[in-house]
Design goal:
Elements (H helix, E strand, L loop, with lengths): L1 H16 L3 H15 L6 E5 L7 H4 L5 E6 L2 H4 L8 E5 L11 E7 L8 H9 L2 E12 L4 H8 L11 H5 L8 H10 L3 E8 L6 H7 L2 H11 L8 E7 L1
Parallel strand pairs: 1-2, 1-4, 2-3, 4-5
Antiparallel strand pairs: 5-7, 6-7
Length: about 240
């Protein structure tokens, strides 16, 4: 566990020093995908990082708990009356209450044992609650192009940016579904977020807001090849 904490503190500096504006735009798009599907009044967000999605989620819940093992990131999230910040590894987190909505956005690609984490999170849901998962998609168009260019050996190979962010894996719809089903969760809905033909830094430097919004809308039409896969689950 000590090694895991060291690794997380090291990775946390990427969010502070290397994240580009478009990374945050993608988080906003993922929130827009969830918004109409969220169930209140109690929410739990695992791995909020510096709180880009948290600031949106605060408006959706009477009570929102966020859990992160990187204290320097957790401290960057502004305090709020309905916000409870918990400094903990997910493996050590044992909530005294249960939740209507649990959000794990770009978490499963980071953790050592995603199925075990999903099994634990499943037990934290209230009856009728929902678990919201999001992961990078190996079949994203920009990864398929990278394979054709010889930049990646296969679509799920970890690139330098993945490694800097502490990613341990990249999912496809098939492997994502496999892990979710292995946890005992029931899949309510799966889909894709943002059609991404280029890397995040390339989009960040060259694209207009209108282009970015258009490719967000396009991702709904091509979920198999969108940048991210989302999954809504119940217990």
């Amino acid at each position: 566990m000590k090694n895991e904490l060291k690794n997380l503190e090291k990775v946390s500096h990427w969010y502070v020093s290397e994240q580009v504006d478009f990374d945050k735009r993608l988080i906003e798009f993922r929130y827009r995908t969830w918004k109409q599907r969220l169930v209140g009044p109690k929410g739990l967000e695992l791995g909020p990082a510096e709180g880009v999605m948290t600031k949106f989620l605060l408006d959706d819940f009477d009570s929102l708990t966020v859990v992160d093992a990187a204290s320097n990131l957790l401290n960057r999230i502004p305090d709020a009356a309905n916000l409870n910040k918990v400094h903990s590894l997910f493996e050590d987190f044992n909530p005294e209450e249960k939740f209507n909505s649990i959000i794990l956005e770009h978490i499963l690609e980071h953790v050592d044992d995603p199925v075990t984490l999903l099994k634990r999170a499943k037990d934290w849901l209230l009856p009728g609650g929902r678990l919201y998962l999001g992961v990078p998609n190996g079949n994203s168009f920009h990864r398929l192009v990278a394979v054709k260019m010889g930049l990646l050996e296969n679509e799920c190979q970890l690139n330098n940016r993945d490694l800097k962010q502490g990613h341990r894996r990249v999912y496809t719809h098939e492997t994502f579904r496999k892990d979710v089903e292995a946890s005992g969760l029931r899949i309510v809905e799966m889909g894709g977020v943002f059609f991404k033909p280029l890397s995040n830094p390339q989009i960040d430097s060259d694209w207009s807001d209108e282009m970015i919004e258009g490719f967000y809308q396009l991702g709904k039409d091509f979920p198999e090849h969108a940048a991210d896969i989302f999954c809504v689950c119940s217990n």
